[in-house]
Amino acid sequence: MPNYPHLWEPLDLGFTTLKNRVVMGSMHLGLEEAPNGFARMAAFYAERAAGDVGLIVTGGIAPNNAGRHVAHGATMTSAQDARRHQVITKAVHQNDGKIAMQILHFGRYADHQDLVGPSAIQAPINRRVPRALDEPEIEQTIDDFARAAEFAREAGYDGVEIMGSEGYLINSFLAARTNRRTDDWGGDFDRRTRFAIEIMRRTRERVGEDFIVIFRLSVLDLVEGGSTLEENLQLGKELEAAGATIINTGIGWHESRVPTIATSVPRAAFAGATARLKQAVGIPVVASNRINTPEVAEQLLADGVSDLISMARPFLADPAFIIKARAGRPARINTCIGCNQACIDHTLGGEITSCLVNPRACNETLISLSAVRTRKLIGVVGAGPAGMAFALAAAQRGHEVELHDAADTLGGQFDVARRIPGKEEFAETLRHFTTELDTYGVNVKLGRAVTPSDIAGASYDEVVIATGITPRELDLEGSDHPKVVGYLDVLRGTRVPGRSVAIIGAGGIGFDVAEFITQEGPSASLDIEAFNRHWGVDPDYETAGGLTPQTAQPAARTVYLLQRKKTKVGAGLGLTTGWIHRAELAGRGVKMIPDVSYLKVDDDGLHVEIAAEPTVLAVDTVIVCAGQEPNRDLYDALVADGLTPHLIGGAKVAAELDAKRAIRQGVELAAAL
Fold first, then answer.
1. On the CB side of 240, how many CA atoms lie within 13 Å of its CA?
2. Which keywords describe this protein according to UniProt (predicted)?
3. Phi-psi category of 338—alpha, beta or left, where left has phi over 0 and alpha has psi -120 to 50?
């Protein structure tokens, strides 16, 4: 039975003790600005505290109005603000937890007209140009950080985390890339660090010695003109001297060309930089970024890489992460797969944060899976994301559930997605569902299609249809040509494409297929050295920003990724992952072409018009990724027989494959029955 002894070791900070080595890292939830948001945050954090997290860090709260992420963003600037937060700290403490408030000044990343920075240099990911702070404003901002920490203490927090990484205000003072000042707050590294050190020093003076003050330090900026690791190690020593209790490591700016938290990033990919920091300072150091299993966390601690492990999104996915690991049942953990679809994409899109694999996250007061009073026999047809999510949630509530699928394995389209390079983590979700369905006694019946007569003879109290989708057929002359294949045949390995390929359809599936057929050798998401070479990360951390030239690896196949729309290919992909997919394919030489009209397929290849100009793509294979249709045959037959089954997932809406929507529909239906 797994034990993970280093994870459960308490950490004595002198004036207080953390009960284990796990930190729930900061995530902006969107609840900070939402109606009734503080009550919802209290429920969210209380459930994680009840899950035995050693220390929780909240989402970022601005120390002044200029530091807000949006014009109506949350601040900690008054006693009234502090009182609003007390519902959170009380809820956490009632569940024997500790919680720190992150103080975050967005700087030039802010999306409002009053954004500021050390210099008037626009961020490439922001349409707005910041105004350079003058010296009195710098002094006031430093005091605002210290005052926010003081109010956080009044609110009942056990500490604060000063956000000094990811390219936000403090980080932008540290880097020559964004600090072009010639006064005492810019120039050489000593003067560029003055802002950060003064914030730490004054904060410690304001809150006293018996209060946790974490500094989140960017050990790797991963941008041109960033700081060197040696500079950051020196800064770590100075922050320690200025009063930091703990240093948490941040990796990469939001404008970096290197992915840092997506599923395509290897687990603990940047731990080497954290290990260097731990050797340089005498206070506890936290490792972060793409640590999502107890095995990885335990190994980092055992190897002396860090003193604490920060896992943020893993606690969106499963608030009972620690309880399950400590019980020796890691297979029961609902593992974060790094997809970003319901967390960071929601945050950047102005939506409430949640989790694709756990839609109750941040909705604890809205979606209840309380025990039922009347137990029902429920039949579920379709074991894709929607069907599995419903079956598990219904069984957790106490219903008797039978789950059917014609396939021999669980997962549906999710089982296909795990085969895509960079999406190997999706197998963790299938492992979780497989384990939990068995734990809660769901009767899983695979390998046989269900008929209307099967349903009629089963005497179910409720029937749920989650039969998913069928790929849309190509309506084109020559669609029956031997060159034409469906994407499922390719991804399942029953058809092998030729050396030149045209992919019709550049949605998420088209990109997945392009990555699948152009992958050469092992996936970089599974190999840190390959990842560093591919994305241009200096493995020795000696260069400014930690970057080296990227290594392009053109694919052996010639691939055309085509779409009808005139917009940029891939524009509809995830906010935080779409650029990764586009960069991957560009590096492999995939030709991404918009404004395509399809004419026919014949022995010569695919006949098209590109921007109204006729041409022939002389390809060996045409892969069809032209959308999906709901698979409702069974549902329609049951309705025709006078039954009223429930319809969820792709069988209900198949405009685009959407596991986030499918899983949430399944859980919400289970909560309602």
1. 16
2. Flavoprotein, FMN, Iron, Iron-sulfur, Metal-binding, Oxidoreductase
3. left
Which residues, at least 6 apart from 569, have a Cβ–Cβ distance to it below 8 Å? 506, 561, 563, 582, 592, 593, 594
CATH superfamily, with its number, for domain 17-348: Aldolase class I (3.20.20.70)
pLDDT in tens, 158-205: 999 999 999 999 999 999 999 999 999 999 999 999 999 999 999 999
Q: How far is Cα of residue 145 from the mean position of the Cα atoms in its chain?
A: 28
CATH topology for 484-520+555-626?
A: FAD/NAD(P)-binding domain (3.50.50)
pLDDT category at 525 given cuts 50, 70, 90 is confident
- Helix, strand, or coil here: 186? coil
Chain centroid to Cα 551, Å, comes to 26
Q: What is the pLDDT of residues 229-283, one digit of tens each?
A: 999 999 999 999 999 999 999 999 999 999 999 999 999 999 999 999 999 999 9
Length of the chain in residues, anyone? Answer: 673
Strand, helix or coil for residue 405: strand
Distance CA 89, CA 103 (A): 16
pTM over 0.70: yes
Q: Could you tell me which residues come within 8 angstroms of residue 164 by beta carbon, excluding any fewer than 6 positions away?
A: 170, 171, 174, 196, 215, 216, 217, 218, 250
What is the rounded CA–CA span in Å between residue 587 and residue 441? 47
What does the angle CA 491 – CA 314 – CA 292 come to, to the nearest 5 degrees? 65
pLDDT score at 484: 97
Do the beta carbons of residue 28 and residue 73 sit within 8 Å? Answer: no
User: What Rg value do the Cα atoms of the chain yield, rounded?
Assistant: 26
DSSP code string of 247-282: EEEEE--TT-SS-SSSTTSPTTTTHHHHHHHHHH-S
- Cα distances from 332 to residues 127, 431, 650, in angstroms, run 44, 8, 26
pLDDT at position 1 is 62
Helices 578-587 and 508-518: angle between axes, nearest 10 degrees: 40
Residue percentage of the chain with pLDDT more than 70? 100
Domain ranges for the chain, please list them: 17-348, 377-471+635-672, 484-520+555-626
- Active site residue ranges: 168
525 near 263, Cβ under 8 Å? yes
Element (H, E) at 230: helix 229-242
The whole-angstrom separation of Cα 53 and Cα 99 is 10
Pair of tokens at residue 10: 């308490």
Helix, strand, coil: what percent of the chain each, to 5?
35, 20, 45
CATH superfamily, domain 377-471+635-672, is NAD(P)-binding Rossmann-like Domain (3.40.50.720)
